[in-house]
Structure formats: C-alpha cells, structure tokens
C-alpha cells in the first residue's frame, strides 16, 4: 500500500468514521439531513522525492448549489456527487503543524502542504488526526447548518474562503424557504457573470414552482 493511502487508512479513516463521514478512497463525505454536503479529500503533489507531499482540503456544498451547478443535467439524473477540491460555496484547508509541514517557514498557499516521510510517519499521522478531530470536523459540521454558513460568510471569523458571491449564496440557501418578495429583492443585486449566466431566470423558475405548489 502507498504511504499516503496507508496513513489515511490508519490515522484518518477512524476519526472521520466516528464523526459520521463516509469514505471512498481518499475522499470523505458527510451529508446532512437537508442534503448539504461536506467533502474532505487529499491532493498529492509530486514535488519531493523524499516525501509524500499532500494537501488536505474540504468543501461545503449546499444541495441547491449543487443543483444549480448541474442544472443542465439535473432532470436526467446523470449527476454525480460533489468532489473533493471541486465546485462549492466554501473551501478550507487543514494546515499542518511545523513538524509535519513540507515548508514550515513559508507563508501563503504552500504552507498548507503536509510532508509524510519514513521518519515522521507516526508524528504526521497523529498531528493530522488531531487537526481533523479538533478543528476541521467541528468547523465542517458547523458550516453545514445554513444559518451558521450564511453568518460566517457575512461576518468571516474562520480560516475558510467563500467561493461564490454573497448575494448568490444567500439566495441559494434561502430560495426554498424565504418569502418570495425577499428573494426577488436579493435578485436585484445579482449581476450576470457572463452572457450565458441564467441564474436569475433559474431562481425565478424555482420561485414559480413554489407558488404553484401551494
């Protein structure tokens, strides 16, 4: 078994399983009662012949966001599950402590890279398990609550990155429950991302379905 896969099996899988995540290879997924998902995965970087260098990242994907992203194929049912490091509304990284980092003295994006070597396997595994258990998993579960997610995106305090405009995110989180007039008011602040952006029309079709279904 490859060193990274062995590390995932021994140190990561038990922690994620206890938190309710389902595993598929190096990807772990938690689906809330609303259908919103937290997806955590590993990205391997072949940059060091003496170490398995990798990132650990997670994404928060609300159900309606995923439906919007896959709107052209949704009716056919030919839509897979969100991917680790794929499209989402919020992204975060699991940052290694210095002793498990590939470049501990650097700032910026490369600081998130872990380094697994023969002489630090146990240290790296324990540090990763602790970071997941104490920081990443609680953060993901917190953000799967739509009220918490919207509040965090409005008033950032966590080390996560919002990937979609705030107004679009609020619409996607509230379109099935908020009064129609409130969603329409939010739509007035939405600017098309390009010539083929039909977000406003898609939202209004969904609102119309709500009204007809009452």
Question: Could you please describe the fold and organization of this structure?
Answer:
The structure is a single chain. This protein is an alpha+beta fold. Helix content is 41%, strand content 17%. The protein contains 7 helices and 7 strands, in the order H-E-E-E-E-H-E-E-H-H-E-H-H-H. The chain has helices at residues 3-18, 63-69, 121-143, 146-154, 166-174, 180-187, 199-213; strands spanning 22-24, 27-31, 37-45, 52-61, 90-93, 114-116, 160-162. Strands 1, 2, 3, 4, 5, 6 and 7 form a 7-stranded antiparallel sheet that branches. Strand 1 and strand 2 (27-31) form a beta hairpin. Helix 1 (3-18) crosses helix 3 (121-143) and helix 4 runs antiparallel to helix 5. The chain is elongated and about 60 Å long. The chain starts with a helix and ends with a helix. The mean pLDDT is 93.
- The biggest beta sheet, please? 7 strands, antiparallel
Mean pLDDT: 93
Low-pLDDT segments: none
Shape: elongated
Q: What sequence of helices (H) and strands (E) makes up the elements? A: HEEEEHEEHHEHHH
Radius of gyration: 19 Å
Estimate percent helicity: 40-55%
- Helix tally equals 7
Strand content is 15-25%
Structural class: alpha+beta
Distance, first to last CA: 56 Å
DSSP, total strands: 7
């Amino acid at each position: 078994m490859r060193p990274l896969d062995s590390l995932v099996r021994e140190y990561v899988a038990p922690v994620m399983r206890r938190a309710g995540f389902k595993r598929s290879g190096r990807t772990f997924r938690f689906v809330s009662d609303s259908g919103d998902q937290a997806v955590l995965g590993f990205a391997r970087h072949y940059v060091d012949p003496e170490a398995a260098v990798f990132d650990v990242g997670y994404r928060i994907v609300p159900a309606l966001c995923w439906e919007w992203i896959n709107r052209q194929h949704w009716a056919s049912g030919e839509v897979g599950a969100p991917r680790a490091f794929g499209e989402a509304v919020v992204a975060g990284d699991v940052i290694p402590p210095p002793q498990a980092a590939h470049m501990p003295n650097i700032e910026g994006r490369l600081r998130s890279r872990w380094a697994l070597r023969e002489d630090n396997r146990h240290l790296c595994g324990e540090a990763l398990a602790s970071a997941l258990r104490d920081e990443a998993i609680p953060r993901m579960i917190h953000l799967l609550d739509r009220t918490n997610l919207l509040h965090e995106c409005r008033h950032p305090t966590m080390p996560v990155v919002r990937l979609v405009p705030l107004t679009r995110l609020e619409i996607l989180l509230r379109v099935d429950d908020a009064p129609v007039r409130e969603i329409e008011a939010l739509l007035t602040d939405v600017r098309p991302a390009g010539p083929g952006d039909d977000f406003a029309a898609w939202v209004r079709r969904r609102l119309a379905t709500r009204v007809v279904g009452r």
